[in-house]
């Protein structure tokens, strides 16, 4: 199921440039809340309550609202995690002091920046090292299960300049015992790398950590889904969804399984955001995707609901 997003919210704020989304089925009274992160022309969080069905209806979109983020500063938010009234953002960099790649903590109520967390040295711009310009971080996902202390998983979009061209690095953000996750800065630890598909210009645009089930009891690595894209000039997009086991530090994980999204009917677009979505049935996991139109008239903001067969996961559990 796929639909095109309106170009404005109910408050007449123009919208587009969506790079991440979050779906909360516990909004109350049988309603769900969909939140979309936009980085163009400035950072905004767009919220819409879904009254029925799997995707928003025109009536739902008519009540959508938007919240400015980090007013007065340049923000290139590419991924987000909402937790305990706070909004964690992965902000992409341009290899300059003015546009540094960072992890940001914001107040989810008013959009103000509460904390800026610098990335590890290897990820920072330097001679022959660091994230490439406009190369991430592109993904941020909650790694810890609900009810447990918050742990975040971050991924670069493209290989670091000092790394092989077929892999992207992961970072785990965590709080040591005794540190307050609502106030203190988290610590970063390398979490291995994911192997990219063969071919030029593939990048990782979002990650989703899947429920662990009995993998945690067996002390097996969690499974993660990666949304991958490839841009081929002048205006062609290829999109894939790949399943990986979370690598250990220093290790590289190869895809356990992957899906060509155009082969299953998805419109070729700049698909950037991935989230758990509404339930489909007992045999499938609902996934929501959002595309980034870059405010380009040749692109569009689209939402898609995919049904991932649980049998695809069971064989790796």
Structure description:
By secondary structure, the protein is mostly beta strands. The protein has a single domain, classed as Neuraminidase. It contains three helices and 21 strands. It has helices at 58-62, 214-217, 310-314, and strands at residues 2-4, 18-28, 31-38, 44-50, 65-68, 77-83, 86-91, 102-107, 113-118, 139-142, 152-155, 167-174, 187-195, 202-209, 223-232, 236-245, 252-253, 257-260, 271-276, 284-291, 302-309. The chain has a five-stranded mixed beta sheet, with no helix packed on it. The chain has a four-stranded antiparallel beta sheet with strand order 1-21-20-19. The two termini are 28 Å apart.
How large is the radius of gyration? 18 Å
Mean pLDDT: 88
CATH topology: Neuraminidase
* Number of alpha- plus pi-helical segments: 3
Outline:
This protein has about 325 residues and is mainly beta. It has a single domain (about 70-315), classed as Neuraminidase (6 Propeller), CATH 2.120.10.
Topology:
Blueprint: E1 2-4, E2 18-28, E3 31-38, E4 44-50, H1 58-62, E5 65-68, E6 77-83, E7 86-91, E8 102-107, E9 113-118, E10 139-142, E11 152-155, E12 167-174, E13 187-195, E14 202-209, H2 214-217, E15 223-232, E16 236-245, E17 252-253, E18 257-260, E19 271-276, E20 284-291, E21 302-309, H3 310-314
Parallel strand pairs: 13-17
Antiparallel strand pairs: 1-21, 2-3, 3-4, 4-5, 6-7, 7-8, 8-9, 10-11, 11-12, 12-13, 14-15, 15-16, 16-18, 19-20, 20-21
Question: Which features does this protein show?
Answer:
five-stranded mixed β-sheet, mainly beta, Neuraminidase, 317 residues, single chain, four-stranded antiparallel β-sheet
């Amino acid at each position: 199921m796929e639909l095109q997003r309106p170009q404005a919210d109910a408050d007449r704020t123009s919208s587009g440039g969506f790079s991440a989304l979050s779906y909360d089925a516990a909004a109350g009274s049988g309603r769900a809340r969909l939140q979309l992160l936009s980085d163009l022309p400035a950072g905004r969080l767009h919220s819409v309550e879904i009254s029925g069905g799997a995707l928003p209806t025109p009536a739902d979109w008519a009540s959508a609202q938007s919240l400015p983020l980090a007013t007065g500063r340049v923000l290139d938010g590419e991924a987000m995690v909402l937790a305990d009234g706070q909004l964690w953002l992965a902000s992409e960099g341009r290899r300059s002091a003015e546009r540094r790649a960072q992890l940001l903590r914001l107040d989810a109520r008013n959009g103000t920046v509460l904390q800026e967390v610098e990335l590890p040295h290897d990820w920072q711009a330097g001679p022959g090292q660091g994230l490439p310009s406009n190369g991430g971080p592109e993904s941020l996902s909650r790694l810890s299960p609900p009810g447990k202390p918050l742990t975040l998983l971050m991924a670069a979009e493209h290989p670091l300049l000092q790394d092989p061209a077929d892999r992207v690095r992961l970072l785990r953000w965590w709080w040591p015992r005794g540190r307050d996750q609502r106030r203190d800065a988290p610590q970063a630890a390398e979490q291995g790398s994911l192997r990219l598909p063969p071919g030029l210009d593939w990048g990782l645009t979002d990650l989703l950590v899947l429920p662990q089930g009995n993998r945690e009891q067996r002390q097996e690595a969690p499974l993660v889904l990666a949304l991958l894209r490839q841009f081929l000039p002048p205006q062609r997009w290829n999109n894939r969804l790949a399943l990986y086991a979370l690598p250990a530090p220093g290790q590289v994980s190869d895809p356990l399984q992957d899906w060509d999204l155009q082969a299953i009917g998805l419109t070729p677009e700049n698909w950037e955001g991935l989230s758990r979505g509404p339930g489909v049935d007992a045999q499938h996991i609902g996934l929501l995707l959002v595309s980034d139109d870059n405010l380009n008239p040749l692109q569009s903001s689209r939402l898609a609901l995919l049904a991932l067969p649980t049998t695809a996961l069971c064989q790796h559990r």
